[in-house]
């Protein structure tokens, strides 16, 4: 069971928000889906709303704003739904990739893509194609161990291809559904 209290602290009167639980079924609670103006009334500035629903199916998901360009400006995060409370057999990492508009204001950020981010970290090329020195996401692993990476795309328009050089990757699930390992 998921219970999340959201208080909208955005300052503008036109800054409504909502949270969409991407990929989770909303059987019996469609008003908790968080798609503003479709299945959910947005949360106005200064207002609080409590989302309550049963999380189905199990797997790796994200939540994100479903109003305007709030998702492209960073209103998103990871959500893992587990079958039970047993510990995963492997150490886990969650990696959310997203597009980044470095220079334009939020009104245009849906359409301009300057760089990709992993967990909100990344670089953009500046003068003479030098990086801006911003931090990068680092996953520390040990040789010979196996890890579970939960990948999600919070980008607005562009797909991403993920490769880890000189490592084998086995896909075991996608969008909340187990797969025959590939």
TrEMBL record:
Domain of life: Eukaryota
Keywords recorded for this protein, A-Z: Copper, Metal-binding, Oxidoreductase
Record carries keyword Oxidoreductase: yes
UniProt-listed SUPFAM superfamilies: Cupredoxins (SSF49503)
GO molecular function, a single term: copper ion binding
Domain Plastocyanin-like: 1-83, 96-181
Gene Ontology cellular component terms for the protein in this record: plasma membrane
GO BP term, example: iron ion transport
InterPro entries: Cu-oxidase-like_N, Cu-oxidase_2nd, Cu-oxidase_fam, Cu_oxidase_CS, Cupredoxin
Keyword Metal-binding belongs to the record: yes
Xref: PROSITE patterns: MULTICOPPER_OXIDASE1
Similarity comment text for this entry: Belongs to the multicopper oxidase family.
Protein name: Plastocyanin-like domain-containing protein
